[in-house]
Structure formats: C-alpha cells, structure tokens
TrEMBL record:
One of its GO terms (molecular function) is DNA-binding transcription factor activity. Residues 1-58 form the HTH lysR-type domain. This is LysR family transcriptional regulator. It comes from the Bacteria. Gene3D superfamilies: Periplasmic binding protein-like II, Winged helix-like DNA-binding domain superfamily/Winged helix DNA-binding domain. Signal peptide: none annotated. Keywords: DNA-binding, Transcription, Transcription regulation.
Amino acid sequence: MNLKFLETFIWVARLKSFSLAAERLNTTQAAVSHRIATLERELGIRLFERDSRDVRLTPLGIDAREHAERIVRLAADFRRRMINPASLTGTVRIGVIDTVVYSWLPTLIERVREAYPDVVLELNAAITPEISEDILDGRLDLGLMNGPVDAPGLVNRQLCTFACQWVASPALAVPDGPLEIEDVARFPILSFPTSSSRHGSVVGYFQRSGIENIRLHTASLATLIRLTTDGVGLAAIPTVTIEREIASGALRILPVRTEFPAISLYAMYLEMEDRPLPPLIAQMAADCATAFCASRDPADAW
C-alpha cells in the first residue's frame, strides 16, 4: 500500500477539503482525487462522502483514518531511527521567538551542525502567531515558540518552561517591599508586540485584577530589555534572558505578590513521512532546552 496515498487520505480528512490537502502536500487537486480514488478501490470501501460544499468521512473512513495515522506515524519513526545522518541534506526553515534566541538557540545550531554537516538552517525570528501560520502554509518547516497551538496535523512537542518576573531599572522610582498589581500599573508597562501571545498575557494579567487602563508600550525582546534598562517602564520578562542585566545591577527583580504567568516553549512541525529533519531537530531542541534548564535556578527554568 502506498504511504503517500495514506498520507493524502489523512490530510483530506484533517482539512475536509481536497483543494486544501493539495496545497498542503504541494500537489494538484487532480492528484489528490486520483490517490483517494485509488485507495478506495484497493480497500473496496468508500472513505468520503462528497457533495458540492462538503467532504466528510464515512463511518468506515473514520476507522480507516485512525489506522492510517498509526501506519504513517510508525513509518516516519522507522525512517528517523534507521536513516544515516550523513545522508541528510538540504535546508530546514526554522521560525524562532526571541526568548529562544536569547537562551539555548546557539547550542542547538552547534548540535545540528555537528550531527548533520550538510544541512543548512535558515532562521527567521518572529512571534508565535506568524510562525504557526508560516508552518501551516508551508513557508517554514519547524517552529520554536510559545504553545501549544491547536491546528490540523500540527505536532506540539513541549520543550521547557521559563518563569517570568517583573523587573525595572534601579533608576526608576519603584518602591521597595512587596508590590501589588495596582502598584505596578502606576508605571508605564513595556510588553511584547501587540499580536503576540505574550502581549495577551500582559493585558490579561491586569484585567483579571479589574485594571483596564494601563500605559502599555510594545516592542521586541531586545528592545524591551533595552527600554527597561533605560528606565522607560516596567516589564515582565523571562528571567533566563536577562541574567547579565540582573547580575550587573542594570535591572532588579520586583517583589510583586501576584506572579506573572510562565512561558512554555514548544517545537512545532507538520509531521510528513518524507520530511525526517523537522522532528529530528525538534528532538535536539528538547535536549538543548532540558540541558539549559538544568544549568539554571529551578525557580527560573524547568
């Protein structure tokens, strides 16, 4: 039985569309229709009910999908385990959020270079919504970002969790001693870009305490650290990304009573039988993240 036909069946079932499955698999709608028709003839069953507006699985198709996904997953796992690393070549397009760039990304790049010398990494720093959209549209092969993200066929592999703490420049007149959320809200708040999930976490943090009107400014992580260091405002930042600033005294951790939500990092990719590199690099990312967290204060990374 042709694995490519099984994979095509899975994607039509996930997306409920022959045309969308064709786009995802980088082929034509006619090719998708041919594969499904051939698979139905081989099995002697009808997998889909089709009409002018809808594509849905038949009862037998629902059962077939479960088995097909298991077969394709096992085939992909077999290939990853048996493949010779020296035979892997090509370019892997990876989207990364700034938090990864500021923590264990350099280690991951070195690990990939050593294991797969003929593989080129093409890195794109962006925010999570942009990265997940680019993965689903086929413009990226792997994302290292906040998560999880729920989308058809998207594999979410948890990597690590970073604690976030409110910090400020010593030059900013923030009172000593325990602080309430209301005390924090009196100062300008620096946040991640508006469309990022972390920005939503900042807004939600204050709204849960009934605070709606805050002076909020957005920026990338690098700009966020610089502006906070310069005393422009307060920011809730993953502690592992500002260790040098804290150690040098450029930033101080504020004793805010209500903890800011931690950030969970995931590796995400579309699992395809003929694309072994994204899951292999995701495994390396998990190893790098684990080692990085083990070398830090357990209160900051786990």
